[in-house]
Amino acid sequence: MAGDHQANATPAEPSKLSASDFKTYNRMAETMDLYHNNFRYTWQQLWDSVSPAASSNGSGLSPSNLIKTGLRFVSSLSMHHSIEERHIFPYLGSRMPAFGPDGEPLKQHEQIHQGLKEMEKYLLACKHGERGLAREDLKVKMESWGQVLWQHMDDEVWQLGAERMRKYWSLEEMRRMPM
Predict the structure, then answer these.
(1) pTM, full prediction
(2) Burial code of 102-137, b = ≥16 C-beta within 10 A, e = fewer?
(3) Band of the pLDDT at 15, cuts 50, 70, 90?
(4) Could you give the residue ranges of the DSSP H alpha helices within 101-169?
């Protein structure tokens, strides 16, 4: 009978984290969410400016500000991903499969980078007068990778959350994390 009980036993629930320990384990998720909130805000500003309503009523960013804001967004997001890929993901990926070379965040980065390249190419052509800015054209470019970007930002923060981080890292290791 005792053997039957063990065979049917479920794994023990991890102990509940104290508020202080939760904060330590969740620090990377909170920090990443702050970065991502800036990207979300700028994306939404750009998106609102390429919407049909903005085109018809003149709301949203002016053409020159739309180009500047778009190029800053491309540059900032590219730099953010570069730092993640060179410094953060290799460190995390040493224990966390999600951040390893075959992990979803890197696959999402590849899709996002394709969209960023196309958006940058288009905006630079507009900036240099090689073509006129057409909000609908920019919207189409953003649509091609926007869903992946938003999913990526949410997924990444979730992966860095306290409950996942505690599976792979000690509290002391979390305190020394490079972010």
Answers:
(1) 0.87
(2) ebbbbebbebbbebbebbbebbeebeeeeeebebee
(3) confident
(4) 104-127, 135-159, 162-168
